[in-house]
Amino acid sequence: MSEEKTYVEDVNRTIYDVIDDDRDSFKLEQGLTEDIILQLSEEKKDPEWMRDFRLKCLKMYNEMTFPQWGPGIEGLDMNRIYTYVRPNTKMASTWDDVPEDIKNTFERLGIPQAERTSLAGVGAQYDSELVYHNMQKEVEEQGVIYTDFESALKGEYADLVREKFMTLLTPNDHKYNALHGAVWSGGSFVYVPKGVKVSVPLQSYFRFNAKGAGQFEHTLIIVEEGADLHFIEGCSAPKYNVANLHTGAVELFVGKNARLRYSTIESWSKNMYNLNSKRSIVEEGGRMEWVSGSFGSHISYLYPSTILKGDNSTMEYTGIAFGSTGQDLDTGMKVIHIGKNTSSVVNTKSISKNGGCNTTRTSVQVMPQAKGAKSVVSCESLMLDSESRSDTIPVMDIRTDDADVGHEATIGSISDEAVFYMMSRGMSEEDARALIVSGFADNVSRELPMEYAAEMNNLIRLEMKGTIG
Amino acid sequence: MTAEKIKINSLVPPTWNRLKVNDTTVELPTGAGAGMTDQGLATSEANAADWNIETGCGAELSAFLAKNGTKPVLVANDGDKLVSIKKTYTGNASDILCFEAKEGQTVNILTDVTSGDSTEGTAVLQVLLKAEKGAKINLAQVVRPGKGMKVVNDIGSVAAEGAQINIVQVFTDGSDISAGSRAALEGVDSATENHIGLVRTNGQTLDMNYVVKHLAKTTKADINVTGALSKNAKKTFRGTIDFVKGCTGSDGKENESMLLLDDTIVNKTVPLILCTEETVAGSHGATIGKPAEDILFYMMSRGISRERAIEILERAALEAAANKIENTEAKEYVLGVIAGKYADE
Fold first, then answer.
1. DSSP 3-state assignment of A464?
2. CA nearest to A145, candidates A105, A101, A188
């Protein structure tokens, strides 16, 4: 008897694959030259220091080598990428002022509805620029600043932005940080003053529409001493038959005894090269929480990193990646323990199916001065067929005796014993397997607000069919 | 004598360069003579083409040995009788020793390499193992050269259907040691175990790369590392369990337990699991840190000083590996070496 394998449905991309007509948008020409950078800088009305910074980054980009350790990015030709695409609209603070087609796209993605029900503020970026930005009055009155990055660069917080911009993610870190420094556009700036607790999340949503373009938004969040924030990042794009590129940068500064939760639901199209960088630095007693769901893109390099600088600072990372046909997702995290009595807890999960490739890459570094550091890392991988690939590549670099570091990794398929147990309780084999796979992703959805958990569950809607065995 | 720098112990696939774990560079003397053929071994020339086995240290080392005229020699064995090779190096040396276990046969091998403290040089010992159907090879190794001697200890093995390759290694002394091991589990139901005990101190280094390729159905692998680091010691352990498509029902485990005894050490652990097969079980576990205070307290409450208690734990890490040696004669020898080390101190 032929065996029909457990079937897990691909991500349902119907709502993400709608393409708007971009005939009215403004584009810089394809490629990456000094002239293009100068045009971009002119278009953005950059201060002089930023223009010089861009040019310096371009030089570094040209001098740096491509990464030799991750998925192949030969299909990405910067000469064919539009680094700047501006929609034909200005940033609005009400959805009624957003052009109809763009507004409809965000409506389909559920952004205005989410804003009404569960968010304290929303920034919506469309290609290279924000088209909508708004924050609840009550939150504004608490002194919270949430604005588009360009406004922050020139406004009241210009000096603070300049002081922090690309100091965590420095352009000499790697080639794609240098690229970001050269061509960044859009993004958000968030400042939460000392002691302010923002009880409802803020969200930035990055929507890609232009064919063959790049998106390079910059997110800078400063959470001052004793403050508290949950920030949500969402992203999606329609699928094209040419490469698109996302090289965003996220820099997070978590103050003394502050807490920042940064949640991401990423659903790029399968022609996307997602070469994104995120880094946080945490002061004494501060806490950084990452929640990450990676479901889209053709190639991903994504490893949120945390520097536990202050004594008693902590980090928790919860992430899941779902890799299917045509996807090579290289995801994970990095943490560096510097302060005394710091701790990190990491839970990563991956699901591979239909020829998809997942690589979970992590690093835990404990410096000699990080006395009393504790780190626990758990990596679980689920293989749903033998056409796929799942690799786990952890590194632990421990330089003090006064540390307690644990790591565990497991890889496997759906347990026959678990299926048998559920069947003995009256479930069908099909239902039992569906439940196990759904439960595997549960740790991430539990960490999200309900609306976003629902979106994630939509993204990994798991459908079982057929008889097995 | 000239020397050549080569890269060994390469991580496949590599990871972030800044962590400096993707490979290691060693400087090897060209034209080093054989060091083991004076040990009274019954040997014959091995056909290099028949012994073209991938090793843990990698192809660059094998190519270097071939280029420099180090020829593989087949070491005869007499069934269950221990093949014992104890070598005190007096300078540069380079050997490739091949062992074969015929169908259903068990072969026990012990190697112990040392050198005088004033001896300087670099020795390469490559051991190649082939276990035929239902055969078993038990290899026990002690690597304890003197302060001036660098050692590259490399293993490559192939296991046919139902065959087992069990390797126990104890690294106690020496300045810089590089070690590699690669097992190809080609036959259905074949298995391999690596048990490694290590103690590094006073600036000693140990750079390791252990790889198991699961190439057939229901193969099993178990890699265990126990050890202790102190006083500027550096250790890198790369362990790779590689489930190749078709190895259904296979099981691979890696486990590491390291005691870190001060904050001058560098302990790097890189345990990879690679998988292109659905129905396999792979796992890795690591416990890294200082000795548990409750254990130290218990020992101290019994009148044992803290220093002595730590020494007992260190010795236990070595003995945990040595106790996995199946051959009684080899086990007693290795346990004796460990006892001698701590008696001297």
1. coil
2. A188
How far is the alpha carbon of A382 from chain B, nearest alpha carbon, in Å? Answer: 8
Rounded to the nearest 10°, the torsion over CA A78, A82, A83, A85 is -170
What is the DSSP track for A326-377? Answer: T-EEEEEEEEEE-STT-EEEEEEEEEE-TT-EEEEEEEEEE-TT-TTEEEEE
Would an 8 Å CB–CB cutoff place A409 in contact with chain B? yes
User: Could you report the per-residue pLDDT of A231-245, keeping only the tens digit for each?
Assistant: 999 888 887 778 899
**Alpha-carbon distance A428 to A101, whole Å?**
45
Q: Which of B175, B281, B78 is nearest to A382 (CA)?
A: B281
Cβ <8 Å between A69 and B22: yes
Residue in B246, B263, B271 nearest the CB of A409: B271
Domain ranges of chain B: 3-291
Dist. CA A94–CA A354, nearest whole Å? 42
Minimal C-alpha gap between A462 and chain B (Å): 18
Q: If you measure CA to CA, which chain B residue comes closest to A356? A: B276
Given A386, A391, A400, which is nearest B263 (Cβ)? Answer: A400
* Whole-number pLDDT of residue A463: 33
Count of residues in chain B: 345
Nearest to B155 by CA among B173, B143, B172: B143
**Does the pLDDT of residue B36 top 80, yes or no?**
no
Note the Cα B19 to chain centre separation in Å: 23
CB contact under 8 A, B283 and A411: yes
Q: Which residue has the tokens 């489930």?
A: B243
Torsional sign, CA B244, B249, B250, B255: positive
User: Of how many residues is chain A composed?
Assistant: 469
How is chain B split among helix, strand and coil, in percent rounded to 5?
15, 45, 35
Give burial (CB, 10 Å; 0-12/13-18/19+) of A3: exposed
Rounded CA-CA distance B279/A468 in Å is 14
Report chain A's mean pLDDT, rounded to a whole number: 87
Of A178-182, A343-347, B78-82, B294-298, minimum mean pLDDT range? B78-82
What is the rounded distance in angstroms from the CA atom of residue B93 to the CA atom of residue B80? 29
Asked if residues B287 and B255 have their Cβ atoms less than 8 Å apart, the reply is no
Percentage above 70 pLDDT, chain B? 98
User: CB pairs below 8 Å between A and B: how many?
Assistant: 147
Within 8 A of A393 by CB-CB distance, chain B residues are 13, 15, 270, 272
What backbone phi and psi angles, to 5 degrees, belong to A448? Answer: -105, 155
Q: What is the ipTM of this complex?
A: 0.93
User: Is the alpha carbon torsion for A409, A415, A419, A424 positive or negative?
Assistant: negative
- At A291, give phi and psi (nearest 5°): -125, 120
Q: In this structure, are residues B209 and B9 in contact, taking their beta carbons and an 8 Å threshold?
A: yes
Count the Cβ atoms, other than its own, within 10 Å of residue A297. Answer: 30
Lowest-pLDDT range of A23-27, A149-153, B3-7, B154-158: A23-27
Contact A381 B288 (CB under 8 A): no
Distance from the Cα of residue A453 to its chain's centroid: 16
